Amino acid sequence: LIIRPQKKRQRKHEEMLASIRRGDQIVTAGGFFGVVREVKDDSFIVEIADGVKARILKASIQMKKHEGEAVEPSVSEDLAG
Question: Quick check: helix, strand or coil at residue 67?
Fold first, then answer.
């Protein structure tokens, strides 16, 4: 059973994942920074260095950064501390 605040955080995280588009900067739960190059059903192709691309599961995306904006933590980080 998920209590209401957890549901709200989970919904916010799902909305953040749904809003990620090609070219967005992201940070994974493992701490990798990258730029989304492709959006797939359950994953993203993320460029983590020049010419280095990795397939990342959507569930492992920690946060999204908009151009000119500081990186803001997602719901998962709220749960950690």
Answer: coil
